[in-house]
Amino acid sequence: MAKKGKLKCPKCGSTDVKRDLSNPIWGIGIATPYKCQDCGYRSFFFPKYYKEEKEE
Ligand SMILES: [Zn+2]
């Protein structure tokens, strides 16, 4: 089974990363950048974060 991964911001470490659809050209099937909701960091690539420890 595949592990569930979350996108993690490399800048602030937040996992509150969502697709940035603020520019309509990104919504037509071309690569859509992701944006960190915490610090505003935007990139096409965010490292995936796999939770391996218990949530506390
Ligand atoms: Zn961030």
Describe this structure in words.
The strands form 2 sheets. This protein has a 3-stranded antiparallel beta sheet with strand order 2-3-4, with no helix packed on it. It has a two-stranded antiparallel ribbon with strand order 1-5. The chain has one domain. The chain contains no helices and 5 strands. Strand 3 and strand 4 (42-43) form a beta hairpin. By secondary structure, the chain is mostly beta strands. Zinc ion is lined by residues 9, 11-12, 14, 36, 38-39, 41.
Quick structural summary:
The chain is mainly β.
If helices are DSSP runs of H or I spanning 4 or more residues, what is the number of helices? 0
Average pLDDT level: 81
Strand tally is: 5
The count of domains is 1
| Small molecules held by this entry | zinc ion
List segments where confidence is low: pLDDT < 50 over at least 5 consecutive residues.
none
- Bulk shape: globular
**Roughly how many Å apart are the termini?**
24 Å
Helix content: under 10%
Record keyword descriptors for this entry:
three-stranded antiparallel sheet, binds zinc ion, mainly beta, two-stranded antiparallel sheet, globular, 56 residues
Secondary-structure map:
Layout: E1 5-7, E2 17-19, E3 34-36, E4 42-43, E5 48-50
Antiparallel strand pairs: 1-5, 2-3, 3-4
The structure holds zinc ion (ZN).
The site of zinc ion (ZN) has 8 residues, from loops.
